[in-house]
Amino acid sequence: MGFVLVAGIGVIGDRISRAHNTVKASTPAPGDTAPARFTGVPSPTGTEAVPFPDRRRTRALLAALREIDPALAHRRSVGRALSSCQDLGSGMDRSRVTERVRLRFDGTARVGPRRAERILTAIEKTLCPS
Predict the structure, then answer these.
(1) Which of 7, 53, 89, 130 is the most exposed place for a label (fewest CB within 10 A)?
(2) DSSP letter string over 32-68?
(3) Which CA distances in Å does 119 have to 24, 32, 46, 63, 103?
């Protein structure tokens, strides 16, 4: 019985050692350059990315959304807003962008067509590149 226990521990130890070596091999050394930081929402067409907003723009967006409905002012709204900027930048028809805004933001707060238009206007004024 003791031999089986020792053999089982050896097998588990080998698995742990292999997992450790795999993680160690995939982790960059301290002198290596860090991976590039995410700087925006990649374009589905691969043409242009919408830059990730700085703190000032993020605060302005969240404040504008809070005025529309406090339930809209959360961090996930920033990514949703960036996607909406990208839709506008791609030349998509405004009515279609408004509908996509409605679908993106509905759930946390009730978002109908008029509220979606207000959200889109707030996004344009605070976040989308001019």
Answers:
(1) 130
(2) SPPPPPP-EEPPTTSS-PEEPP-HHHHHHHHHHHHHH
(3) 46, 42, 26, 11, 12
